[in-house]
Amino acid sequence: MIPVAEARARILQRVRPVAEEWVTLREARGRVLARDLPALRTQPPHDVSAMDGYAVRAADTDPPGRPLRVVGEVAAGHTFAGRMGPGEAVRIFTGAPLPAGADAVLIQERARREGDRVVPEVAVPPGRFVRPAGLDFRAGDPGLVAGTVLDGRSLGLAAAMGHGWLPVRRRPRVAVLATGDELVFPGATPRGAQIVSSNSTAVGALAEAWGAEVHDLGIARDDPADLVRALEQARGMDVLVTTGGASVGAYDFVQDAAGRLGLELDFWKVAMRPGKPLVFGTLGPTLFLGLPGNPVSAAVCALVYLRGVLRAALGLDPALPERTAVLAVDLPANDEREDFLRGLVEGEDDHGRPRVRPAPRQDSSMYRTFALADVLIRRPRHDPPRRAGEAVAVIELARVTAG
Predict the structure, then answer these.
(1) What angle do CA 183, 189, 191 make, to 5 degrees?
(2) Which residues contact residue 156 at a Cβ distance below 8 angstroms, ignoring those fewer than 6 apart?
(3) What is the 8-class DSSP label of residue 303?
(4) Can you name the residues that pair with 113 across neighbouring β-strands?
(5) Using one digit for the tens of pLDDT, what is the confidence trace for 89-133?
(6) Report field, pTM of the whole predicted structure over 0.70
(7) Number of domains in the chain
(8) Same structural domain for residues 211 and 268?
(9) Are residues 165 and 175 both part of a single domain?
């Protein structure tokens, strides 16, 4: 068995970034920007009014009280023809370009209108209530950087900068195949000793949250020929994920079937719990991850390994984020396998660190405890006994399952 850190390093070493493609702004939410995005235009493109009022020459308002002749009006999206002269003013609205000759805005609350004239009630300095051209950005300025996960805020900036199409990383193509005679599809009625297949649903949904395009290959039976036929459907995929059939039982055929298709095995078995019987290798350009069949083992392995693969392929940081928590109970010494314990958060300590309690049973078939858990408590190999109140590393599940 190899350590978790070594397994992650060997997997990530094989990952290659996916190519870029161009999509519309409406299609870009959640996608990863493939290159730096500069501004194509200046915003605002002109000196514009920040308020409703009157465009004036600041010198004409000092001292206040001298009437100015109103020679026109300008609203957002329009311009004032000609040039404003001394002693003149132009009625202006928020967002409208400042007329030539004006250098300030007298807000309407500080102006008294008298027919075709306006009387300033205060003196305004040059630049008052004026948004200068390029206040936000100028054409050519850096805007968004490669690796940005595009959300509503960044898409709004891209639109403002003049972009209608964006270069993004292609979604990594992930094929997911469940294996086992005991499995039936969700919604079907199990018969005899059959159970419902949940791994493809969980792993597929997680992969989609991590930016993948998922292809569900269904369920392959415990038959080498059927497995080979199912695995052949993954040609052209970036990643092939199987669940089940990766252990050493008499009906664990995945490695053999993949070998018939040219699997180059990198490693098998990792010193972790849950998830020991993990298979990793390559089928030509396709990365192959053979996950265990127990549902918690499959989900934890997806978090620890598949998430990093997809993030690396998209040009994102593949590291698994951790934070410090404190134990609510004592824990015995750990053995030679790195442990990922499902746990619940029970408030915080005096330093704001979450207080975590492992689920009383950690059987890898108990998926409900994983679905309801707040964290995975990570314990290194040969970790000594821990007392309640001691610090431990945790992975916050809501954070890592979201992206």
Answers:
(1) 65
(2) none
(3) I
(4) 118
(5) 999 999 999 999 999 999 999 999 999 999 999 999 999 999 999
(6) yes
(7) 4
(8) yes
(9) no
